[in-house]
Design a protein that fits this description.
The structure holds three protein chains of three kinds. Chain A is of the alpha/beta class. Helix content of chain A is 36%, strand content 23%. Chain B is an all-alpha fold. In chain B, helix 7 crosses helix 10 and helix 11 runs antiparallel to helix 12. The chains are: A alpha/beta, B mainly alpha, C mainly alpha. Chain C: Its main location: membrane.
């Protein structure tokens, strides 16, 4: 049994004009110490997925169904008090923008100590000592002085280090990092990512890394999911997906990487843009942008327009695509014919 | 989000009416019963005030129609009332209903006039301060700060007292309407100036202003033709609130004897004239005009709240 | 800290300078001391020599400097009406106004913070809707009308009997609609003397009853504004990333609301609200008029009616000083509370 198992997660936003489904049928799992990447364009539902794990989605969002099992315990429907014992303690989070994540009117020390004291019965003095040790681990210069400083006295990179230290304070099982380096200067992005990776490995902490940067995912994670319009459309071992993407969208994403373009020519791009969630097209949500709806022989693959694709397994990967399903079917049929 | 989509959906050739029909403004209005009721009440009050000469049973400015013997009659639901005077009469024997209708007219004229005055002053100063910056900005904003820290009411009272001292009581009463418009306009321009300045500063950094400057357009043209239109939605929102404030300010000045004379009463001076009779039990002379004033101001404020929620401009705080 | 103080002090002096120029201009143009000193019968030539002797023909700047030099020592001349130094007249009326403002401020702070916070934490609760509805009605009622209604209800008393009085529930409902009246609504009663001309209403229960209605009506102006301000700020803060992060850390809701969120909410509230509390002094003119509260506001209105120019000028200067002091204090408190403001004056 995996440490974290998410099945058929269904998250909706209750708007006046009716519910909008932000996550549909999201399934994934995470083993102890494993690093999972979630990629997709902005608005694909990556952050919603991250926040719904700890039931932290802002109103009017709510979890409409599915199951989130963590260490054998079902988190959906768990009371706030019980959930609070998990938040920051066994599963902690790192947010996107370190400039906004720390409370501007409380010192670094206060914000670390309160987290420790919310989960453990320890004195402020002991909590400060632990905080100090964590600040040392994230390689902050003169950590002693930092404890009594306010966030605005620290640079963005330093603040993200503090936030990583807070995430590690209680030696959690999982860290959910929502675009942890996007808001940082390019020069320190790699530094922070390396630090996070190193600490996760050192403490055997599972990592859910949410990003739109395929490069980072391929370097850091062992498995990945690709999300599109609130659904997982492909998942599997990172290396296999990067080397041999099945879903046309994933192929497009990888082709769009600058290193995939021929020098001197235009960058590859996926035509069109992701539909808004309240305006999804019928069938496969990606079909209006997909180059494979029309078959090589010019016939239209009608299922793409009419029917939402289910998952098909190809090797260690799963993809939700009619085209892939057709291909697998075609490969399998001759083999069966030969057998018979 | 919705406003942008509807803007895209409506073609550039769509008429103003079509654009209004498709707009988010109308959509949210249809879904907000409070806004609908407020607008209806507001329209009824304004119509009643505008049509006062035709609606009112008598003309309170015409001394010949006043019967002093019929003074302090109660409204119709109380014993001792006279069916000729639906809402009773005031201390001078004027029909209270007529006086309220005429009074609401005066209050509304001053309210809207004063807001036009503040808007004219405030928009000009705000544009200047925001666009020119530097010393002009520092001077105007410091002035606005000082005025606001004194509170607009205090400024209005002082300016009103000065005008009264300079012109004398009789002249002041004779020209009370334009003077009050001027006084309240002078007292409240900082609100506009700050709002406009804040949005000018926000707009100034945007590229279209740079583009206009590169094209060699004059500062005045850039300010009025390019920046001002983009600051309209916050101006629109504070205008509603300011009309309500101006009506209250006028009432306050009248209550202090610095506003409309009793011969040509506004709602405020009606409340004041009735206050002296409160102890003798004639509460209606004060409280009925008071109720009308509160309802008028309340519906304007409710409409302002609704507008702010819908247009959601970044208003200057503080 | 010192640099900050000096900067604030300089700003305050600048404001006082502007106010004093305005005040002096009023005095110069409207007040004619000769008229007050001598009667109508004195011939014009004699007036002219007097004018020359008193320096009234000197240039504006010279006269202003003379005015300013005296003003610094709180010498604004004699009141026409009271025939005594204006500062003494003001000093006699000041405590009444300050007590009224203090009582209202207490009411505003004590009520607006819990109500504002509650309606931000539970924006959809019916009680929050009631608070917001009442507050917008409150904004729409002019102060003097609130005061009048309070007098009608609690001083004069109201008895309504629209329900059948012979049934139990009818009598009960009628009882709810009926107020006894009898609350003191005019003047200060017999305040307890403290020192000199300073008398207080806070020292006795009877004194407090005189304070109740005026203080409530004065508070009624700012209370809705404060509630709406605190609610709006708190709602915004609750949306912030740092509140979400605190939740993700597993901090208890109580600590999030009352430490993380409230502390950030109060920063803008201190700046906006502090200035508003200062302007309460202006609104005392209205409340004091309705309640005949013998404070500065009532005195000022009286001075306007009797064209007591020196008293008007003194009032403006004193009120200006009060505003400047409150604003400076507010800035100082803000600087102390907000860690991102460097009071040291060193570049951050």
């Amino acid at each position: 049994m995996s440490l974290l198992e998410v099945n058929n997660l269904d998250v909706r936003f209750a708007l006046r004009r009716g519910d909008v489904q932000a996550l549909r049928d999201v399934c994934f799992r995470l083993d102890r110490g494993e690093r999972l990447g979630i990629v997709g364009e902005s608005g694909a539902g990556k952050s919603v997925a991250a926040f719904s794990l700890l039931n932290l989605i802002a109103k009017p969002g709510y979890i409409a169904g599915g199951s989130i099992r963590f260490d054998g315990q079902e988190l959906i429907g768990l009371g706030d008090r019980a959930l609070r014992r998990i938040r920051g303690h066994r599963i902690s989070m790192i947010f996107q923008d370190p400039m906004m994540t720390l409370n501007p009117v409380l010192t670094i020390g206060e914000q670390m100590v309160e987290c420790l004291r919310a989960h453990r019965r320890i004195s402020t003095r002991d909590a400060r000592a632990i905080s100090l040790r964590k600040l040392e681990q994230v390689q902050i210069p003169s950590p002693e002085a930092r404890l009594d400083q306010y966030p605005h006295e620290l640079s963005g990179g330093m603040r993200q280090r503090v936030i990583i230290a807070i995430a590690l304070l209680l030696d959690p099982d999982i860290i959910i990092a929502d675009e942890p380096t996007t808001a940082l200067d390019v020069t320190i992005q790699a530094e922070i990512m390396a630090l996070l990776l190193e600490l996760c490995e050192e403490h055997n902490v599972g990592l859910v890394l949410i990003t739109h940067d395929l490069g980072v995912v391929s370097q850091v994670t062992q498995r990945m999911l690709v999300m599109y319009a609130g659904r997982v459309i492909e998942q599997g071992p990172t290396r296999e997906i990067i080397n041999d993407p099945q879903h046309p969208y994933t192929q497009g994403l990888i082709n769009a990487l600058p290193q995939m373009a021929t020098p001197g020519s235009r960058l590859n791009q996926i035509p069109g843009s992701m539909p808004s969630l309240n305006n999804l097209s019928s069938g496969c949500a990606f079909h209006p942008r997909c180059g494979f709806v029309t078959r090589p022989d010019d016939s239209t693959r009608q299922a793409c327009v009419d029917q939402e694709p289910g998952f098909v397994t190809s090797g260690n990967c799963q993809a939700a695509c009619h085209m892939v399903a057709e291909m697998i079917e075609r490969e399998r049929l001759p083999a069966e014919e030969q057998d018979s | 989000m919705t406003t942008t989509t509807s803007a895209i959906e409506s073609s550039p050739t769509a008429s103003r009416w079509e654009r209004l029909r498709d707009s988010y403004l109308l959509y949210s209005f249809k879904r907000d019963p409070i806004a609908q009721v407020s607008l209806a009440v507001f329209i009824v009050l304004v119509a009643a005030a505008v049509l006062a000469p035709w609606l009112a049973p008598m003309n309170p400015y015409d001394l010949a129609q006043i019967d002093i013997l019929a003074s302090e009659l109660p409204p119709f639901w109380i014993d001792g009332s006279d069916p000729a005077y639906l809402m009773g009469t005031d201390a001078q024997g004027r029909d209270l209903l007529s006086t309220i209708l005429y009074g609401a007219r005066v209050s509304l004229i001053i309210g809207f006039g004063a807001v036009a005055m503040q808007a004219a002053l405030g928009v000009c100063f705000g544009l200047l301060a925001g666009y020119l910056g530097g010393r002009v900005d520092a001077f105007l904003m410091r002035l606005a700060d000082i005025q606001l820290s004194f509170s607009t009411l205090m400024v209005a009272i002082v300016v009103g007292a000065l005008f009264k001292a300079i012109f004398g009581g009789a002249t002041y009463s004779a020209y009370a309407v334009p003077l009050l418009v001027l006084i309240i306009g002078l007292a409240e321009w900082p609100q506009y100036a700050r709002t406009v300045r804040a949005s000018v500063l926000a707009e100034k950094g945007k590229e279209y202003v740079d583009a206009a400057r590169v094209m060699g357009l004059s500062s005045r043209r850039i300010m009025f033709r390019h920046i001002l239109p983009n600051t309209l939605s916050p101006i629109f929102v504070i205008s509603t609130v300011q009309v309500a404030n101006a009506i209250i300010s006028e009432a306050a000045l009248s209550f202090l004897g610095l506003g409309m004379p009793e011969t040509q009463p506004s709602l405020g001076s009606l409340i004041k004239s009735g206050f002296d009779y409160l102890q003798s039990g004639s509460w209606w002379i004060t409280l009925i005009p008071g109720l009308v004033l509160v309802i008028l101001v309340l519906v304007i404020n409710l409409l302002g709240d609704w507008l702010r929620d819908v247009l959601n401009p970044r208003l200057y705080k503080g | 800290m010192i640099a900050f103080l000096i900067k604030r002090l300089f700003h305050a002096l600048l404001v006082m300078f502007v106010i004093s120029v305005i005040a002096f201009a009023i005095q110069d143009n409207l007040g004619d001391p000769i008229q007050q000193m001598v009667g109508q019968s004195v011939p014009e030539s004699e007036r002219e020599t007097l004018r020359e002797e008193l320096g009234l023909n000197d240039p504006f700047a010279v006269q202003y400097l003379r005015f300013a030099a005296k003003a610094v020592q709180f010498d604004f001349g004699y009141s026409y009406v009271f025939n005594e130094p204006t500062t003494e007249v003001i000093l006699r009326h000041l405590p009444a106004t300050l007590e009224l403002v203090a009582a209202s401020t207490f009411l505003i702070i004590a009520l607006s913070i819990p109500i504002g916070v509650y309606s931000a934490i539970k924006p959809r609760a019916w009680l929050s809707r009631v608070f917001m509805g009442v507050s917008i009605i409150g904004i729409s009622i002019p102060v003097f009308l609130t005061a009048i209604v309070l007098i009608q209800l609690f001083a004069i008393g109201v008895s309504w009997s629209p329900f059948p009085a012979d049934t139990g529930w009818g009598a009960w409902l009628n009882g709810l609609l009926t107020t006894d009246g009898g609350m003191p609504a005019y003047g200060r009663g017999d305040p307890v003397p403290v020192i000199g001309t300073w008398e207080t209403n806070f020292a006795s229960l009877e004194g407090l009853t005189y304070l109740v209605l005026p203080a409530i009506s004065l508070a009624s102006i700012m209370l809705p504004l404060f509630i709406r301000l605190i609610r709006a700020e708190m709602l915004e803060v609750l949306q912030s990333d740092y509140v979400k992060f605190a939740r993700a850390k597993g901090i208890s809701p109580r600590r999030i609301y009352f430490l993380h969120a409230l502390k950030n909410t109060m920063l803008p509230v201190i700046t906006v609200g502090g200035v508003q509390i200062g302007t309460l002094v202006a609104y005392t003119i209205l409340t004091e008029t309705v309640f005949q509260w013998p404070g500065m506001g009532l005195m000022f209105l009286d001075a306007i009616e009797r064209s007591d120019i020196p008293l008007i000028v003194t009032y403006l200067m004193i009120v200006g000083l009060i505003f400047v002091i409150t604003n400076t204090l507010v800035d100082l408190i803000y600087g102390l509370v907000n860690p991102t403001v460097k009071l040291t004056g060193k570049p951050a």
